[in-house]
Specification:
Layout: E1 6-9, E2 16-20, E3 30-34, E4 48-50, E5 53-57, E6 62-66, E7 69-72, H1 80-84, E8 92-96, E9 99-103, E10 108-112, E11 126-128, E12 135-138, E13 144-148, E14 151-154, E15 164-167, E16 171-177, E17 181-186, E18 191-201, E19 204-217, E20 223-224, E21 231-240, E22 244-250, H2 253-256
Antiparallel strand pairs: 1-2, 2-3, 4-5, 5-6, 6-7, 8-9, 9-10, 10-11, 12-13, 13-14, 15-21, 16-21, 17-20, 17-22, 18-19, 18-21
């Protein structure tokens, strides 16, 4: 794959980088470097370029190549078994608007690409999508298109919003706490926000959910949860069509502020 200043050779063993020399110091005015770590590509359709870096799927995760440096970017997001469960050998990948979109028969992911290979990756950079395209295309104008069974769709276009469902990780509190308030920073479209607490029995969590709140939210003000219920574990689920930027939860309304 060729960028403006470097080309990346992806193999079933060690990747290599071809960089243009300025000033020219060797035949062909280029240097070829083989990386020290084997990072074999397992899906050639997963490979794409963005801002001079190359991204592609390996058996261990999504790799970022930047110059002669390489890093598996998803080790903080997936264990090796979890990554294999996504069928990465099928992955079709493209970068659009700073996000890597990856699609297999089993999942669709949207991953915020780091600005630097040294940047730490956070769970907030990853989103799972419900769309399952057969093919994907990014135009020279940075427009993203999906081919589905019933037609071709453009990402982030049109007059109607696609409904979403987001469920966070199971939150594990350091001790029994009564989380009594939350707020969602969003646009002024109705979204359904649901909080579920779980009980513990003899040091083991049991599937005995308690609905702490299940309401439609149309603003970014703090809202109250069920009073007087302390828990160690809780889930949050948000569904709707309004755009959500942030989610906050606290032990009091005062911690969240008014807006």
């Amino acid at each position: 794959m060729c960028g403006e200043r470097a080309g990346y050779i992806l193999t079933d063993s060690y990747p290599a980088v071809i960089e243009m020399e300025s000033p020219c110091q060797s035949q062909g005015c280029r240097s070829i470097t083989q990386l020290e770590e084997p990072l074999p590509i397992i899906s050639y359709q997963s490979a794409c370029l963005y801002n001079g870096a190359c991204f592609y799927a390996t058996k261990d995760g999504l790799v970022m190549l930047a110059g002669n440096q390489a890093k598996v970017m998803t080790t903080a997001l997936y264990t090796k078994d979890q990554w294999q469960a996504l069928a990465p050998w099928q992955m079709i990948g493209v970068v659009h608007d700073g996000y890597y979109f990856g699609f297999t028969d089993r999942t669709s992911i949207r991953f915020k690409v780091p600005d630097s290979i040294h940047e730490d990756v956070q769970i907030e950079q990853l989103t799972t999508l419900s769309i399952k395209p057969k093919a994907v295309y990014r135009s020279d104008q940075d427009e993203l298109f999906f081919a589905a069974d019933d037609g071709i769709y453009q990402w982030n276009a049109g007059d109607n919003w696609k409904a979403f469902r987001w469920r966070g990780r199971l939150h594990n509190l350091p001790q029994y706490m009564a989380m009594t308030a939350y707020k969602v920073v969003q646009d002024y479209e109705p979204n359904q926000v649901k909080h579920i607490g779980y009980k513990r029995h003899r040091s083991e969590m049991v599937q005995e959910p308690v609905i702490l709140s299940d309401k439609t939210v149309i603003d970014s003000r703090p809202h109250r949860l069920k009073a007087g219920y302390a828990t160690l574990f809780f889930d949050v689920e948000i569904t709707g069509t309004g755009e959500v930027w942030e989610y906050h939860i606290a032990t009091s309304v005062a911690e969240l502020g008014s807006e």
